[in-house]
Amino acid sequence: MKNTIFTGAAIAIITPMNADGSINYSVLGEMIDDQIDNCTDAIVICGTTGEASTMTDAEHLECIRFAVERVNGRVPVIAGTGSNDTAYAIKLSKEAEEVGADALLLVTPYYNKTTQKGLIAHFTAIADAVNIPIVLYNIPGRTGVNMDVATIKKLAEHRNIAAVKEASGNISYAAKLIAECGDMIDVYSGNDDMIVPLMSLGAKGVISVLSHVIPKETHMMAQYCLDNNFAEASKLQIEYLDLINNLFIEVNPIPVKEAVNMMGVNAGPCRLPLVEMTDEHKAALRASLEKHGLV
């Protein structure tokens, strides 16, 4: 069994922007500190929620470097370095390792897609090029590619492939994944509405969007599961279900960035092609935040 990168709740952190669209590192630093102060167990930088897909190469690497330096060893920093171009993913992954990332998050190739054989070749090539652990990211709703359980099982044989972020939303698939690969690879929920279901099956935690607004409660939900107190964990899962749903009422990270702005943190706008929420959706999101005393 490989060393576990983290247990509990990691945040897939947004990237705050200034009005001109540049990265607001001051606010990012404050957010990182606040998350760690409120029990978040790891920081995932430059993931989907961090809008990495619209960053320049220089911005992407600088964000990772900044997060590593700001965290300063307090919790693991997991850097998103996935790509549909294997050579580029290798380059970015090696650079992330050089600036001190503790682990990498690698999404399945999108648009050009690939076969299951291609997935094995792609991830193996990246894993061979680095010396830090890798979290595979299975999110077919965004990429159009679903990793077969047999593919993950094969990849789990690699010394550097330590975990998978499972965001298919398919509980039957997740159960099969954990049943067949659980002793070889750690599983994290990639969906906040499935923290307790997946952890009840043996997942080690969640890579969360919800942590932006209730970091302590999200951590406790996962910790209750780790402590086998699923009754209390389930209460939190149900209590905050409306908030979870409204954080995904439009394409992530549009709603969570709006929520953070509503809560008084200057997260700024998203970059195009992501645009401002509709007034109707803003009202629903604000109502959830108000219900839970967050605004």
Count of DSSP E strands? 8
Under the CATH scheme, which architecture would be assigned?
Alpha-Beta Barrel
CATH topology: TIM Barrel
Output the number of helix runs: 13
- The CATH C-level name is Alpha Beta
Features:
globular; 13 helices; 13% strand; 295 residues; TIM Barrel; alpha/beta; single chain
What does this structure look like?
β4, α4 and β5 form a beta-alpha-beta unit. It is built from 13 helices and 8 strands. α3 packs parallel to α4 and α4 packs parallel to α6. The longest helix has 15 residues. The radius of gyration is 18 Å and the shape is globular. It has one domain: Aldolase class I (TIM Barrel, Alpha-Beta Barrel), CATH 3.20.20.70. Helix content is 45%, strand content 13%. With 295 residues, it is of the alpha/beta class. Strands 1-2-3-4-5-6-7-8 form an 8-stranded parallel barrel, surrounded by 5 helices. The mean pLDDT is 97.
What's the quick description here?
This protein has 295 residues and is an alpha/beta fold. It has helices spanning 25-37, 57-71, 86-98, 116-129, 140-143, 149-155, 171-181, 195-200, 215-226, 230-239, 241-246, 254-262, 279-291, and strands at residues 8-12, 42-45, 77-80, 103-107, 134-138, 161-166, 186-189, 205-208.
